[in-house]
Design goal:
single chain; about 220 residues; four-stranded mixed sheet; 7 helices; about 10% strand
């Protein structure tokens, strides 16, 4: 990915950070820090922003865990993982080849959301049954539900999301044709993308408000 900086290795996998990642890191720091500051005014601006930065970094640590889930399953199938890159929209594990079977493709795709869901369960348990209070409790609960959202969002059935790769594997299994699976899941991804763009314009159409540019 152009504009990426290599920062080291993760379990022998080259790890890169794209320059676009710093933009989203800053925006998330401001967003999370602002939310914590409004909930706990006693923190002050500096501490709120510091906790916002910690929350943003832990979120990307969760994204890394998600991508490592994909990577470890791929490696177990004899597929080389060329890199893991953090960028504006999350993370990307670069594999040197496709899985050889529909079942292999399915397990590589589902591994990431499973890791995110397990992180949600672990963090939810900590927030619910281990004594954490105040801003720390809010931080743990935030990370728990961000991981749940990460798992659910990635299961949307359209490429390039994990759900699209699961759909590709299922169509590949049914038809016996990997190309048909890829084509079907790609078309689904394009359709969902158009729906997403349309939803972004709903505020303009319904109330005359500004479009939701992020959507």
């Amino acid at each position: 990915m152009n504009g990426s900086i290599r920062v080291g290795n993760l379990f022998g996998i080259p790890f890169y950070i794209n320059l676009s990642w710093f933009l989203i890191l800053g925006l998330m720091t401001l967003s999370y820090g602002g939310n914590l500051g409004s909930q706990f005014p006693q923190l002050g601006l500096g501490l709120s922003l510091f906790l916002g930065l910690i929350a943003a970094l832990l979120l990307f640590a969760s994204v890394l865990a998600h991508e490592l889930g994909h990577s470890f399953v791929a490696i177990k199938q004899g597929i080389q993982v060329k890199s893991i890159t953090l960028f504006l929209f999350g993370g990307l594990a670069g594999l040197d080849q496709e899985a050889k079977t529909p079942a292999g493709a399915f397990w590589i795709a589902i591994a990431g959301p499973l890791v995110s869901f397990l992180l949600f369960l672990g963090l939810h348990f900590i927030g619910s049954y281990i004594v954490v209070t105040g801003a720390l409790s809010a931080l743990v609960n935030l990370l728990a539900y961000v991981n749940l959202a990460l798992a659910i969002f990635n299961l949307i059935p359209g490429l390039p999301l994990d759900g699209g790769n699961i759909l590709k594997a299922l169509v590949w299994k049914i038809t016996g044709n990997q190309y048909q699976g890829t084509l079907f899941a790609s078309r689904a991804g394009q359709g969902l993308g158009l729906i997403g763009i349309s939803l972004g314009f709903l505020p303009l159409l319904i109330s005359g408000g500004s479009p939701n540019f992020w959507t």
